[in-house]
Amino acid sequence: MRRRPSHLRFHRKRRGISEIVAVLLLVAIAVGMGVLVYTLASGGVSALAQGATGLVSNQGKAAAEQFVVEQASFATSIGALAVDGTGFSSCPTAGTSCTVTLTTSDTEDVVVLFSATNGGAIGYATISSISGGGLSWTERGRAECLNVCGTGGSGTYTDTDEWYAVSSGALSSVTFTVTLASSSSYTDLSVFGINGANTVSPFDTHSGLPAMLTGSAQPYPAVSTSNPHDIVFGAADLNVATGGVGAGFTTLGYTSGDYFADEYAIESTTQSSLTVGYSVGSTSANNAIADAVEAAPMGANLYVRSVGITSSTLVSVFVLDQSTGAFVGQFPTSTALSAGALAAISLPFTPAVGNAYSFTVTSSMGNSVKFIAEAI
């Protein structure tokens, strides 16, 4: 029998029983959980990845930092913007709270709420919190006017606030309770859903947004945009009973005769100083605010969660088309991720339906996660 020359012999190192058991135990635990997370020293085993419903793994250099990609969603066309439900409410007596109800038909909406208040001589009756529907609200901006705000204006400390939230599900007669920082002699609330919007980074990035009117000598807000596919909208606290919408705009559903007006327009080109005005002159407004939300871009949204005991800063996402082998792009990001938190990263590119894409997310500490999902 011929023997292999000694210089071509292979020598295998036997694994200890404890090492094999430890590896099998780690994999068994991971499969049971549906997610595999591990941290290895530099030069250890390469990171593993399977499909969007399979295992995800983490290779890292800092034992305290661990994070996973929970899911990826794809948009193979630009979102079709539409108003998805409106609600209006007026609380004509003094108080620190008011409610408004909204019903929407679609999922993944950006929900915007306007308030118009008059704090009298005490101070601005700004929104301090919004509850209802399990949504997490963020203040976007406020238009405040002190003293006489418009010819014959109602006086001191009038305020129009803008807040927003993202709703992952449709809303059925959800009542939102708005709590004010101080008492207002009246409160008007307008709320509406926007479908087809960018739910990760909703607002147009133009530096002049939101635009505001905060005094009687000012014109109505003028909106300029950076993105061509936007919905432009606004609200005004009036000192006359009724004001109609401006040219090219549609009402969001305010009640005529209630000293308030709101409106929107869906645009397909970038805007330069588009006036968000009303049928009465700007001297008839105590204050007004206007803004723009972008359509959902083509690309992918990654949802990354920290499962470690320390915070992370995600700095880069490397994307490869696994179906064709083509390099899609390396996208810089600066996404802060506190321990236990979930963050979304929006990646603008043109995904092909049916193709699988890999996403390698890297942190500032050198840790990385690789995730593969199919665009469907």
Please characterize this protein's 3D structure.
This protein has about 375 residues and is mainly beta. Among the domains are: about 85-295, no CATH class; about 310-315 and about 335-345 and about 360-375, no CATH class. About 5% of the residues lie in helices and about 45% in strands. The chain contains 1 helix and 23 strands. A hairpin with a 4-residue loop joins strand 22 and strand 23 (about 370-375). The chain is elongated and about 65 Å long. The N and C termini lie far apart (about 55 Å).
Report strand order across the widest sheet.
1-23-22-19-20
Low-confidence residue ranges: 1-60
Rg, Cα atoms, Å: 27 Å
**In sequence order, what are the helices and strands, one letter per element?**
HEEEEEEEEEEEEEEEEEEEEEEE
CA(first)-CA(last) distance: 57 Å
Strand count, sense and barrel status of the largest sheet are: 5 strands, antiparallel
Mean pLDDT: 83
